[in-house]
Amino acid sequence: MSASLTVFLIALPLSLGIALATGAPLQAGLVAAAVGGMVAGRLGGTPLLVSGPATGLTVVTAELIQRYGWRTTCAITVLAGCCQLGLAALRTARSALMVSPAIVHGMLAGVGVTIALAQLHIVLGGTPQSSAVANVRGLPEQLANLQPAALGVSALTLLVLLGWPRLPGRVGLALRKVPAALAAVATATAFAALTGLRLPRVDLPSWRSHALPELPEGPVLGIAAAVLTVTLVGSVESLLSAVATDKLVASQRRTGNRPPRADLDRELRGQGAANVLSGLLGGLPIAGGAVRSVANVKSGAVSRRSVMLHGLWILLAAALLVPVLDLIPLAALAALVMALGVQMVNATHLRTVSRHREISVYVTTIAAVVLGGVLEGVAVGIAVAVALALHRLARTRITVEVQDGVHRVWARGQLTFLAVPRLSRVLNQIPPGGRVVVELDGSFMDHAAYETLQDWQHAHLVHGGSLEVTGRSTARMAGAGHSGDRTHTAHQPHLAHSAHSVHRADQRSHRGTHRGGHQCCRPWTPWMNHCDHRPAAEPMIPGAAAAPDAMDALESAEAVESVAPPPAPRRRGAGQLASGISAFQRDTAPHVREELARLAREGQRPSQLFLTCADSRLVTSMITASGPGDLFTVRNVGNLVPLPGAESTDDSVAAAIEYAVDVLKVDSITVCGHSGCGAMQALLNSAPGTPMTPLRRWLRHGLPSLERMASRHHAWVRIAGRLPADAVEQLCLTNVVQQLEHLRAHESVARRLAEGTLELHGMYFHVGEAQAYLLSEGEDFFDCRVFDSVGHQAAEHVGQHA
């Protein structure tokens, strides 16, 4: 009951203020508030979400009333509600949230700026103009003709509105139970009444003359665009408010005191039904509101009953309190709505979009909404967001440096036709016959870039030069020269023997070099071709020098493929292990011996504890580009962290955590999951009553992850830009988040976190994509924990992930 009264006291002046801002009959705001509370509250999918006149549609509704009249605007509201019901039936609610947050927040901020500019004229004692630009142009004239009475009432309203939450002492604590909006409007109304000020006031005509909808009149395309705008803006505002309300409930309530999580499709269905009825009764468009919903949650509401009761109180007030409502000065309502518009330009949203480098989308959307309107602004925002995404996709940095006589060309980003001029310019700076290493650090190379690099490669090798191509984009280059080419180099076997020989010699002498240091002989090259770990007695290729390592043997075999014998069968077990050790001693040990000797003398000083799965496909040093002494690694089935004191706990994991945190003093701990995890599959497929085995006893530490995924009271986990592929991937992602929670329960970790000397990171490695993802900080406004993909610039931003 108390929560419903609190929301009613906030919604009453707010509804009148929004109706005033749109130019609609003031009763329309009360109708929308009552219908939103009782219909959307009963049928919606978010129990504590309070719906009413849509703040985000204020500008749109005002434009529709000016263009088509009030009764046609009511019909547009009915049609928009029908569209929402259709979208709900198609279960598209969550898809509607895939719009860039920068566009959504920019749209709402633009609406807020437009509202504030319009209401400023009423605050100053005048009348708002038809557009934001006209309101700005009319401000000088309005300032020259101030109405002191209106300005005084508005200033008093703003003073009470801003100061009410800061009242000190016990008296202030008691007074703060009254909503600030109600206190501000009531104070201004009492002041105007007691001083006898002559001001325009609320004028609620008889309900008998209340206007109802009529058949839309106007151009069909214009009506259709209006319906589309009201549908999209109202739906997005409602769904964002639903997610925000759900998130607020999860952060402030214990599990046993929480209502069910939001059902967005049901919420959209409830909003559609409410808009249909509101339009039929002559009310404003309806959407879920954050201000009223926050008040509802903080007032202790536990069910949708408080939302429905607030709608009932609005209805009773509209019927019984008309004489009291008629005393409210319009300047007080205008000041209240102006403050609400200013608050829609949210500083937190601004910081968020700046951190994600989307400030241009945000600012452009605001400007377009203010200058052109909501639908035009959203369209411009989408266009800028797409252009920014294409720019980031096409942006490539190409540099060249000379180190020890070797020209090193680095291409950072995707190689597309847009980068061809820069690539050609850099490659043409390299003198013929020189030694060149090209590093392609990108995941995509289009045909134009491929041909440019391939043509230059041919010319360079023909003139006696040597070339080595490395990086993620070399697979296509490697496969282009010959059908059997499986190395990382982009040479062509049919070229002149002299160029090929120089190229091979250069590989032997320089393959360990990378930015002036060692690559440790590229340890993954022999790993890619286990079948080429052959005995020393392997037959020699006629005309070829003795190959000192597996790569040379492979190249020589490919150069005369028709002569070489078929490759030996891949060796398994001890033979393969011995062959790999032999390759390490021959190729890698000479380069790492000095570094290992230093570590043996000084001891290990790893920077982080890396806790991951025992899966053989997860090679920690490869996916983190780390070497000896960098990571203190703990591996187990399912990358699980048993809770301290848990039944059948495994002290080996806890001991490793304690040793890493208290003895080695690591700076961070990373929990890394991966796609296709067998442990997570086993958890999903486990059946009750199955006999306990060591593996099943161990997997019991993963049950909290399974429960978290099934719970409606925890934030959902996803990968940036897409939904989880299946339940296994969803559990793999959720498990990382859950194990981070288990880490915080360990005493040593909790202590270091409290001191601010330790960071926790979540990581997910998609094996099939060879793509790593880092868990972003906090939750996004979709109420999700998000794993962001990691590119070559991730090191600059890794400090943001925790």
From TrEMBL:
One Pfam family, short name: Pro_CA
Keywords: Membrane, Metal-binding, Transmembrane, Transmembrane helix, Zinc
Sites where the protein binds Zn(2+): C613, D615, H674, C677
Record membrane topology: Multi-pass membrane protein
TM segment ranges: 102-124, 144-167, 179-200, 220-244, 312-339, 359-390
Record-stated family: Belongs to the beta-class carbonic anhydrase family.
GO molecular function: carbonate dehydratase activity; zinc ion binding
Name of the protein: Transporter
Primary residence: membrane
A single cellular component GO annotation: membrane
Cofactor, free-text remark: Binds 1 zinc ion per subunit.
Location in the cell: Membrane
InterPro entries: Carbonic_anhydrase, Carbonic_anhydrase_sf, SLC26A/SulP_dom, SLC26A/SulP_fam
Boundaries of every SLC26A/SulP transporter domain copy: 2-364
Keyword check for Mitochondrion: no
Entry superkingdom: Bacteria
GO biological process: transmembrane transport
Cofactors named for this entry: Zn(2+)
Function of the protein: Catalyzes the reversible hydration of carbon dioxide to form bicarbonate.
Region ranges (Disordered): 477-518
